[in-house]
């Protein structure tokens, strides 16, 4: 018989029903080995995908690309991920595919090989799209595995999962500075060995995941009497999407164009600018890790509000700061603005606990998609107004997070 799981502090809209095979794991606490494996895989996946943005200066110089074309590369990569993630999440909600993660990583493997040998702009776009396709397969199901291995500590598990991705994203500029810049575009293909390692890890995780899959569809549990109404749930999901929009678009503006901003404003070298980008992305990774456990302990709404109100003063100051001050400001911005990512995703999962894959796919997919669309739009703006103006406009994005006032109060559950 299926048993409802009761979560402390922030209850779900309805009690989550999990199969009996998962009950022992929940009772024993988080499955740390599985969480470590899925986080390491996220690290490897996002390290590879972050290489695309990190080698933009090389591609720009080699193929005489303008900022709009650079933005289109980001769009090609992130559009495939955005378009497919909710679909993949919906499919795996209906029928889990334990080995799809390893198969999806194969697309990333091929994309990196192709990017290393590409000599024409359309081929670069295809290679970027293949890496995006690998991400589309990876994120929804891996987020589900992280929750399944959480032992009830959902924010903690999501933060461990996010830490791998954020830290991997921060490694892209560093590896590009140390390897790709000295050895050129063909060295990108060397990173396909990372994709192969990820395939091996994900295949092993698939063997752990397979017995956890329910063989019978669980009956729908009764709703909590104090749960938000259906209308409030829909409004809350729209608000959470808007919050993720403001955060991801700002992060995308820095990850895609911060290198060019530093080169244009302070006349630093490409390698120096990549190290500064690494500092921002490393702070982003730290914030993603600490935000989840804080949400488990103090409530996710408080963490979301801290992320909104805390980041805005620093983003407003960044366009007017010097080189050293810019580095310091981006540390605070990266840490604070990413601290709510895990809380936003877990909040959304708790609003619709019966659609974990689809919700994870929508939010991860939206994050990728808005980043790609935003990069393309910001590239057009930068071509016409200059890169400095872009950062003056983007400084206001965190203010969108004030919509968090419309998030519902989740009912407290018994311990």
UniProtKB/TrEMBL annotation:
Keyword Zinc appears in the UniProt entry: no
SUPFAM superfamilies linked to this entry: MFS general substrate transporter (SSF103473)
Gene Ontology cellular-component terms listed: plasma membrane
Lineage of source species: Bacteria, Pseudomonadati, Pseudomonadota, Alphaproteobacteria, Hyphomicrobiales
Record keywords: Membrane, Transmembrane, Transmembrane helix
Keyword match Transferase: no
Ranges of residues in domain Major facilitator superfamily (MFS) profile: 34-413
Transmembrane portions of the chain: 21-43, 63-84, 96-115, 121-139, 160-181, 187-206, 235-263, 275-295, 302-321, 327-347, 359-382, 388-407
A single GO molecular function term of this UniProt record: transmembrane transporter activity
Name used for this protein in its record: MFS transporter
Pfam families: MFS_1 (PF07690)
InterPro entries linked to this entry: MFS, MFS_dom, MFS_trans_sf
Source species of the chain: Bradyrhizobium sediminis
Gene3D superfamilies: MFS general substrate transporter like domains (1.20.1250.20)
